[in-house]
Amino acid sequence: MSHKTFISYKYSEAQKLRDDIIKALGDDAQYYKGETSDSPDLTDTTTENIKRHLKDMMWGTSVTIVIISPNIKKSKWIDWEIEYSLKEIMRSDKTSRSNGIVGVIMKYNGGYSWLRTKTIKKDGHFLINIDKCKLYSIIINNRSNQNPKQYFCEECKTIDVLTGSYIALVDEEEFLSDPQKYINNAFDKSQNISGYIIEKTR
């Protein structure tokens, strides 16, 4: 099943990955509701006008893809877009429910160590360490927030990388190889949002 999507990204460093994601969506790109190269230039317009334009694009979508790039926190809009995506917004007699959200980690300098490192536990399971300084608090607070937690391994208390967090983080290459897998996972969690402790404010 296809879902209406919005991509939140820092234009100056993640435009190519945004384009790669749209291309990887294939026929499902018709359900993409965010910016494209044909979108109007809002550089010199007011903040309220930009917000209104973004709201019109995001309203009615069900999944937000957030590109996690090295300078994401320098964006004026991404944390606001995540916050808006998590709200339930009513227009006339229709309500846009909280979106599922998936973070796509951009490959930088040949890898992903700029954001996360992996170590192997004694039982063979991976422990992933994220550099939280490089992420907005609204992303950090919606990770490892499954309630009740369902451990991938009860012995070492390892959570599943996709279902253990409302905002899962996926490497660029993995996401591009099967975008529908991760979009569907994000959507499924939005349909079971009561199974997570959600932080909806920045």
TrEMBL record:
Ranges of residues in domain Thoeris protein ThsB TIR-like: 6-107
Membrane-spanning intervals of the chain: none
Protein name per its UniProtKB record: Thoeris protein ThsB TIR-like domain-containing protein
Organism, as annotated: Clostridium beijerinckii (strain ATCC 51743 / NCIMB 8052) (Clostridium acetobutylicum)
